[in-house]
Design goal:
Layout: E1 8-11, H1 21-31, E2 36-41, H2 53-62, E3 67-72, H3 80-86, E4 90-94, H4 101-110, E5 114-119, E6 137-141, H5 156-170, E7 175-179, H6 187-193, E8 197-200, H7 202-205, H8 210-219
Parallel strand pairs: 1-8, 2-3, 3-4, 4-5, 5-6, 6-7, 7-8
Helix pairs in contact: 1-8, 2-3
Amino acid sequence: MVNGRTIDIAPSILSADFSRLAEEIQTVEQGGAGMIHVDVMDGHFVPNITVGLPVVKALAQITHLPLDTHLMISEPGRYAEEFVKAGASMVSVHVEADAHLHRTVMAIKAAGARAGVVINPATPLESLQEIMGFVDYVLIMSVNPGFGGQKFIGTALDKVRRLRRLIDQRGLPVRIEIDGGIDLGNIQQVVEAGAEIIVSGSAIFGAKNPGAAVRELREATVQWV
């Protein structure tokens, strides 16, 4: 807990070894991961193609952790409910990609999952004003989406701080998630700024022992309790 907030580490399987995915997930579970982050890319909204519904369905069979599914796809409203049916506990969509964001968010919640919205580094917080009262969490991208292993964009910290103030001022039960370039060198700053769900890929699965890497990230947040 940090200032009354629960901090979750969400390992991103984008950086995992897919030939041993079940073993990789078991290792981060043992390390204390709070959820598993799944990046879904379509090669259109972002310049890469990753996993889809079959992989999410398979993951739901091998882990007890919530599947935090981040849709980096065009027309996410066409597929969001299908990811819930496949086993996703959380589904987030980009404000930049969905012309009918409220409808998509409400469909995710009606299907039984927590709904989130995502904004890219250059997208202003103002784009969240009308949807904030309907979502369960907001994901701030601290890299430009599409690839793992990118360098953290430092201005994301100020965006998290401003979002934290906005949520607190409005008294909303909305969690803040952050994704991109997070490791032991900056996780304390990220948590201090107000983030609660910390996505990390290469810093975890690029380590010799991913489970130990998760524990180290969790322990790095202790001073903010």
